[in-house]
Amino acid sequence: MNKVWENDLVGVLADVDQSELIYRDTILINKQDSLQFFVRIISQPADSFPNVKAVTGFYSDLEKWGFEDDYLQPEFIRKEKLREWLADRLLIFKVEKRIRYNHEEVYNMFQVRVMPKLPSYNKDLKLIPVPIFSQQVNGLEKDEFVTRLALKKFVGRVEEVSHEENDTPPVVLWREGAEEEERFFLFGMFEKHQYAHGGFSLEVRDNLKSLELVEEWLDECYLTDESPNVAFVPIELYQRLLELVEDAELVTMNQESKEDHEVSEKSLHTGESNIILDLKAKPGVSVSVLEKPAGMDLSGFSLIPEVNEKEQEFLELLYSHTQDAGLIYRKENLINFHTSMKSSSLVILSGMSGTGKTKLVELYSQSLGLKGEQLTVIPVSPSWTSDSDLIGYADTLNMVYRPGDSGLINALRKAEDDKDKLYIICFDEMNLARVEHYFSQFLSILEMDHGKRVLRLYNDDLESRLYNSAQYPPTIVIRENVMFVGTVNMDESTYHFSDKVLDRANVLSLDVMPFYQMKQLPEKKKGMVARADEVDFETFESFQYKNRSLNLHDDELALLWEIHQLMQDVNKQVGVGPRIVKQIDQYLGNLPVQNYILREDAFDLQMVQRILTKVRGSEDQLRDLLGRYNREKDIVESSQLIRLFDRYSHVSAFRESRHAVKQKAKELKYNGYSM
């Protein structure tokens, strides 16, 4: 079974006796008349990496780094030219295990990069990867980073090192200053870690200690732009640094700063002038209400919902159900989906076919204990051209109301009568027809406040004349107990959404997880264990954040305004808009208490789900906004959005947003437009 290790490794051209292969040389010409070579790993791999000393590389991995192979030359000259080229270079790469047709395991390099050997290089060199954190990458000031380390908070992601449970880095580095005046600080010692959407959360063994690396030490380390967030440290120097950290001075935190951080992380300004909710209690423990200290200014603090024991139980049950159903979802995906369902009028699940979008909706309803018509899945037909295809029409010839075959009207009628129960309406393959046509009346309704959402089936003057008007009255009130969700595929057979739809929807994209995780799932059960009690509407309401006042931070609002202005420069009909601002605020307020999606991560997700989905158009329109994709360096250059994310890195690292901008810039380069 194929497997991928995403952490960076360092290697050098293997010697003949180190290749562990049947070939007489570590460079050969394969059947495709292409150079193939074997590299010896000299850096510490992930804990799950097998005892393999050499991995395979190909000429195509080196071509973009300046090596040129002349196919007209004799084979021995081609091989010797590559040997000379690799003699003073190290390779940085990731590894993929593949199973060949004869069941032989092969380990191939990918995402290969090149860096020069240092003068101190020797053939016995062994390197230890140390993660590097910085304000530019992780969006934290140094003091905030230290505070988070000490309090076991998430400090950011570093993709280049292993995140496996047994690969806790004993020490980490903090990079500070411009390139010419960079300073590096080493922090340790750590014995355990968690890794989630918010990155590393490290557990200090005894006390947090720190020292600044002197320039002589840095000269011995492999620090390169090709792998900027990890330092590869020679093992002898690494062991010396561990000893120095053990003897270093303790990191002291300003008590006032520590208390402020705890308040900003764990306290909720309720909108009342006199109370703060103390959330230091563990899940399941009652939350106390404290008097607000006189004169204390709560503006700008993080708004985190109160710990809700029933909601925590529901989330665990949802995750368990997805596992039992044989589906692989990151907990971040499930929390994002649940938060969107709590806070949005319409949630749209996108992604490639087969990612389990419809199944997730079913599992969500099962975890809530919904039964029968409480979940209505409506397969959208490509032939739908008006809302009558969905909701039906008044047949004045036979004087009856004929509801659509979808079952939507029957479900809405039951939801109107059973106002204490939850109902979920799922439009499957929602964009097989134009949403603006068959869903037009709903788009207007979703814009209204709860209590004013009325779906009209036919004119009032027909009520007394239709035989089944008692069963199907002229209007149906859509209550708060009804949630709307859609699933979509984005391919040549579907329609793209208009801004009218995107303004009202949270558009989530489900990740495709590595396939090897499928073998780690528990055996698929024939039937899901249903919850003993149904989550009724009152209980679900207790999950929700109901404060309607705007609580976004000043910097968050400033960023949204600047993005709005940039989008307006491209197209006056496109922007952020007050509705989106309010809905982002509601999403952040509805984020449940957990360690997988922090506020800064949630803001990043909303940037992707509510704003960047609207960035569409031609290369001429979007070139400055999105930037130019550089295929050689795999980066985006001259992007107004990326520069804006850099300026507001204290709000969020914008990891997902940067990835979305990069993807759209690729579409501009290869297609000439982005959708």
Low-pLDDT sequence parts: 256-305
Q: Helical percent range?
A: 25-40%
Number of strands: 27
**Main sheet summary:** 6 strands, antiparallel
- Tell me the Rg in angstroms: 29 Å
Terminal CA distance reads 35 Å
Shape: elongated
Beta-strand portion reads 15-25%
Overall SS class: alpha+beta
Arithmetic mean pLDDT: 83
Describe this structure in words.
With 675 residues, this protein is an alpha+beta fold. Helices cover 31% and strands 23% of the residues. Strands 1, 2, 3, 4, 5 and 6 form a six-stranded antiparallel sheet that branches. A five-stranded mixed sheet has the order 10-9-8-7-11, with helices on both faces. The protein has a five-stranded parallel sheet with strand order 16-19-22-15-23, sandwiched between helices. Strand 12 and strand 13 form a beta hairpin.
In short:
The chain is built from 22 helices and 27 strands. With 675 residues, it is α+β, with helices and mostly antiparallel strands. A hairpin with a 4-residue loop joins strand 25 and strand 26 (635-637).
Tag the structure with descriptive keywords.
23% strand; 675 residues; 22 helices; alpha+beta; five-stranded mixed beta sheet; six-stranded antiparallel beta sheet
List the helices and strands and how they pair.
Elements: E1 3-13, E2 27-29, E3 35-41, E4 54-58, H1 59-63, H2 75-86, E5 89-99, E6 105-116, E7 127-134, H3 135-138, H4 142-150, E8 171-176, E9 183-196, E10 199-212, H5 215-218, E11 230-234, H6 235-247, H7 255-266, E12 267-269, E13 275-278, E14 288-291, H8 309-324, H9 331-343, E15 346-350, H10 357-368, E16 375-379, H11 388-391, E17 393-395, E18 400-402, H12 408-417, E19 423-428, H13 435-438, H14 440-445, E20 454-456, E21 475-477, E22 482-487, H15 499-502, E23 505-509, H16 537-543, H17 554-570, H18 577-590, H19 599-611, E24 617-618, H20 619-626, E25 628-630, E26 635-637, H21 640-647, H22 655-671, E27 673-674
Parallel strand pairs: 7-8, 15-22, 15-23, 16-19, 19-22
Antiparallel strand pairs: 1-3, 1-5, 2-3, 3-4, 5-6, 7-11, 8-9, 9-10, 12-13, 13-14, 17-18, 20-21, 24-27, 25-26
Helix pairs in contact: 8-10, 9-18, 18-19, 19-22, 20-22
